[in-house]
Amino acid sequence: MRQFFKWFLSVVLVVTGLVSNAQTGSISSKKTLRVLLIGNSFSQNASTFLPQIAKDDGNNIVFGHAELPGCPLQRHWQLAELNSAEPENPKGKPYEGDKSLRMLLSDSEWDVITMQQYSMLSGNLNTYKPYAQQLYALIRQYQPKARILLHQTWAYRSDSKSFGEVDNGKLAQTEKEMYEKSRAAYHLMARELNLNIIPTGDAFWLIGSNPKTSFKKDESFDPLKAVYPALPHEQNSLHAGYSWSNGKLNFDSHHANDAGKYLGGLVWYAVLFNKPVTQMKFKPQSVSDEFAAQLKAAATAAVKGGKQ
Predict the structure, then answer these.
(1) Which positions make up the signal peptide (predicted)?
(2) Maximum CA pair distance of the chain?
(3) Fewer Cβ within 10 Å of end Cβ, the chain: N or C?
(4) Strand pairing partners for 37?
(5) What is the pTM of this model?
(6) 39 alpha-carbon distance from chain centroid
(7) DSSP secondary structure string, 19-85?
(8) 3 state DSSP class of 150
(9) Three-state DSSP class for 3?
């Protein structure tokens, strides 16, 4: 009789909880996360598919954009200083809606604010200081409750014609060196500012360094002799690579393609919502089911090992 009573009480509590939750909407309600991106084209790349991934899991993302092409931390800070010194100068209001960073920070209450270094400078620790600290202080001034994250950008594709800076006047010689130097710089800044990292760069490297999933250059393709619409075999590339535009062959070893953007979105979602991504149904049509599964595994592994 006592066991039956315990069982009956547990059922009552569960049903009561379900009814209560249904009345408050907590079961079916969608969580909306407001995210301000302080960055450049790499933050745009990494967040491209984030709204679809969130929607697939019943959540919603609202973005604010403090992003400029190729913009390093130094320039973001200098633009903020210009706006402080000359509030009416339009040059200090370069972001969406002709706004300054201070305006974006004060206009809304942000749940998450991210910042990152320009990829070409990501491996040179000297380029982070003191601008990361200054931007952090500015963010905290206007958004004391926001979760601030560093977005660890990725290294360029292995066949890139050049790689990012690792010291003043010195460039990395390989994808591996660029990854290692930039990772070290991001993690040092994260420790100094007591921040967590969105480890997109780690996820890219997990794919690129694994012989089973890595991109391999098509040695049979000669870009100097290529005739439209010929393109190389670029299986497993996370970067844009080769494309034709107006009869001209273009090569982009820096920015992400759909697979890279998807990988970035998975990493971001796992960090922002603290949820697994292995069962996510959404994927870009251009990404195969097999590769999507490998990208989910890489994102999961990167996030598990990427926190400070």
Answers:
(1) 1-24
(2) 86
(3) N
(4) 65, 114
(5) 0.89
(6) 10
(7) HHHHHHTTTTPPEEEEEEEEE-HHHHHHHTTHHHHHHHTTEEEEEEEEE-TT--HHHHHHHHHHHHH
(8) strand
(9) helix
The pLDDT assigned to 11 comes to 34
In order along the chain (308 residues), what is the average pLDDT of each group of 10 residues?
38 34 38 97 98 96 98 98 98 97 96 98 98 98 98 98 97 98 98 98 98 98 97 98 97 98 98 95 98 98 74
Task: Report whether 58 contacts 89 (CB < 8 A).
Answer: no
Q: What DSSP character marks residue 225?
A: T
Main-chain dihedrals φ then ψ at residue 172, nearest 5 degrees: -65, 150
